[in-house]
Structures are given as structure tokens and as C-alpha cells.
């Protein structure tokens, strides 16, 4: 398992070995020992797993969870291709406002760890792109928040030549500045405290 620290503080990329033969392939995108070595603690207990299937051009996000309670995520692409976007929304973070784009696909099984308070979005680059999420907390609509992905202040590196398909919720989400003004962004120290308790 290869591990890379992303430019967003606390976010990690995991690239497992893929074993291929004439039957197909086998891989393990989450490995406890590799995660613990990289993060300094074991993976969080998984409270919920979710999948999303998207057509080409779909943009999902930027999503995050009210903190507290906060949610950590472990994300990978099971089929198709996606450009995954990791955005630091934690006020007071040394990397606040930074975005890192990571290509994910069903062939390489690369996975990303998103700490509590970090925003997540992705762009589906192929029809039938299947994303998998492991989460430290169950989905609770009252805690789910979003920032508008097309906000110029975020400057997300959306690929050229795609017509972005967004949900009404994501189109109507506040900009980063509006979320900040309304006190909707998570606080870095609070996120770190929650993270350490997982």
C-alpha cells in the first residue's frame, strides 16, 4: 500500500496493490495497518457505507457535516472514472480554502481519507461512475451542509468540455463567503478534537 499526504492537512491518499490474472483483479483499498501507520491511529469505526452511481458530467458536492457531530470519510471509485476534490473548509486550518484534485478509477482502486470538517466533491468522467463511501457517522439530513461547487472563490479545477450536472441542493448552496458569514463552516480545533475521539 502506497500512502501520500495531500495538500489538505490530515487528508491521505492510499494506493493499494492490484493483483490481476486471467480471471480479473483483486485489491484491498482499506488496510488497517497501513491506515494506522499513516494516520497515527486505527481507521474510524464505520457507521455507514454508501454508494453513488453518476452519469458523465455529474458534480456531487461540495458536501460536509455540521461539526459537531462531524463525519470522517473514506472514499474510492469502484467503476468508471472520477476527479475527486478534497477541500479544506475548516476555519483556522493551516490549509483553509485549499483544494486538491485526485483522479480515481475502478482499475487502480486508489482511496482517499477525508478528516472531519473537510469538504468533498467529485466530477464523474464516465457514465456509470460508481463511488463508495465509508463514514464515521450515519447520514442525518439535519447535519448535512454544502458549499456551492461553482463558487469562483473555491476555484475548483472542473475539467473542460463537461457540462456540469448539479442537484438543486448543490446549485442553491451558499458560497464559501456566505457559509463563513453565517457561521456554517467547521472550526479546525473542534474538528481535530472529534477526529482524535473516533
TrEMBL record:
<protein>
    <submittedName>
        <fullName>dTDP-4-dehydrorhamnose 3,5-epimerase</fullName>
    </submittedName>
</protein>
<dbReference type="InterPro" id="IPR000888">
    <property type="entry name" value="RmlC-like"/>
</dbReference>
<feature type="region of interest" description="Disordered">
    <location>
        <begin position="41"/>
        <end position="65"/>
    </location>
</feature>
<dbReference type="GO" id="GO:0008830">
    <property type="term" value="F:dTDP-4-dehydrorhamnose 3,5-epimerase activity"/>
</dbReference>
<feature type="active site" description="Proton donor">
    <location>
        <position position="133"/>
    </location>
</feature>
<dbReference type="InterPro" id="IPR014710">
    <property type="entry name" value="RmlC-like_jellyroll"/>
</dbReference>
<dbReference type="InterPro" id="IPR011051">
    <property type="entry name" value="RmlC_Cupin_sf"/>
</dbReference>
<dbReference type="Pfam" id="PF00908">
    <property type="entry name" value="dTDP_sugar_isom"/>
</dbReference>
<dbReference type="GO" id="GO:0019305">
    <property type="term" value="P:dTDP-rhamnose biosynthetic process"/>
</dbReference>
<dbReference type="GO" id="GO:0005829">
    <property type="term" value="C:cytosol"/>
</dbReference>
<dbReference type="GO" id="GO:0000271">
    <property type="term" value="P:polysaccharide biosynthetic process"/>
</dbReference>
<comment type="similarity">
    <text>Belongs to the dTDP-4-dehydrorhamnose 3,5-epimerase family.</text>
</comment>
<feature type="site" description="Participates in a stacking interaction with the thymidine ring of dTDP-4-oxo-6-deoxyglucose">
    <location>
        <position position="139"/>
    </location>
</feature>
<feature type="active site" description="Proton acceptor">
    <location>
        <position position="63"/>
    </location>
</feature>
Amino acid at each position: 500500500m502506497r500512502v501520500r499526504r495531500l495538500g489538505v492537512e490530515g487528508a491521505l491518499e492510499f494506493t493499494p496493490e492490484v493483483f490481476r490474472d486471467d480471471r480479473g483483479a483483486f485489491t484491498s483499498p482499506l488496510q488497517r495497518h497501513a491506515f494506522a501507520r499513516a494516520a497515527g491511529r486505527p481507521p474510524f469505526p464505520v457507521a455507514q457505507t454508501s454508494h453513488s452511481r453518476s452519469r458523465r458530467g455529474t458534480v456531487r458536492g461540495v458536501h460536509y457535516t455540521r461539526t459537531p457531530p462531524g463525519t470522517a470519510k473514506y472514499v474510492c471509485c469502484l467503476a468508471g472514472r472520477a476527479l475527486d476534490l478534497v477541500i479544506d473548509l475548516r476555519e483556522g486550518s493551516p490549509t483553509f480554502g485549499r483544494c486538491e484534485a485526485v483522479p480515481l478509477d475502478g482499475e487502480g482502486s486508489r482511496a482517499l481519507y477525508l478528516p472531519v470538517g473537510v469538504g468533498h466533491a467529485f466530477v464523474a468522467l464516465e457514465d456509470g461512475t460508481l463511488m463508495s463511501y465509508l463514514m464515521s457517522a450515519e447520514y442525518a439530513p439535519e447535519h448535512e451542509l454544502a458549499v456551492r461547487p461553482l463558487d469562483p472563490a473555491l476555484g475548483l479545477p472542473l475539467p473542460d468540455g463537461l457540462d456540469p450536472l448539479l442537484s438543486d441542493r448543490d446549485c442553491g448552496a451558499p458560497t464559501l463567503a456566505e457559509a463563513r458569514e453565517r457561521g456554517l463552516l467547521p472550526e479546525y480545533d473542534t474538528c481535530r478534537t472529534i477526529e482524535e475521539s473516533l
